[in-house]
Amino acid sequence: MQYEKILAAIKKYDTIIIHRHVRPDPDAYGSQVGLAETIRNSYPDKQVYAVGESVHSLAWLTTDMQEVSDDVYAHALVIVTDTADTPRVDDQRFSKGEMLIKIDHHPNDDAYGDVQLVLPDISSTSEVLIDLINGSNGQLKMNAAAARLFYAGIVGDTGRFLYNNTTAHTLMDVAQLYGFDFDPSVVNQQMNEVTMGQAKLQAFAMSDLQVTANGAGYYVIHQSDLKRLGVAPDEYQVAVGTGGRLAEVRAWAMFTEQPEGNYRVSLRSKELPIEPIAKNHNGGGHELASGAKAADEAEIKQIVNELDALLAGARK
Question: What is the mean pLDDT of the chain?
Fold first, then answer.
């Protein structure tokens, strides 16, 4: 039913504007621009825009962001991909369209939009969109550009197929993408590359890592560290996975100081759900990968204690 509503809306509207979340990752870009490429390929006469701030660290993936004036929204279909809640939508004009569709794979705690296609058990929004395309009875036609973007989105959100959100169905979709004219190995290499500053940041994170007796790892990155190491504001997320490489670490948190003085919190776990902790601190996400906020060092300590208590309780 949701497929039919979305396909009917795409067919109906001549102007379609696609948004995604702020601070995009490969799945945000992949789902947003991959969908835009697919609609353009399927309906060449439609005006399709992908909007939002460009991120330098992902310029190799796409630079396809367009400027859209306010009046364009008046009679437009707006689609928001890979964005769980409205405060995180890049460009808050998303609500000014005539119709709004949400397509996502995060828990649907903020059920915005006239139509919602939200599948939390799917690896990525890129995978959700591949299934939408496959279920469109030929109304949507993927091309190589879209396939490359969707592939990057799936690889990014599965941690290169390391995470438990990788399923047989995920790999079937990936096998389908391999049939298009792009080189997956080039995408893999580009996703694996880091700058010298990012490499130094990963080394710093490992050296600063603290581990509790129950296996909770944590490290704090300050603005002064980013400046000293030469890491751009949109590049520090490369250090999120660092703590999980240690066998002794069962769950971990990276606290990154923001220019305003508060901290962005990246929570990860190898097996136990950490999303409830994120929700306790103005955040959310997936069971094993969530984000939150910490106002100060006192809240950092509180989050570490909650993480440690979760792990301690699981050992009883």
Answer: 96
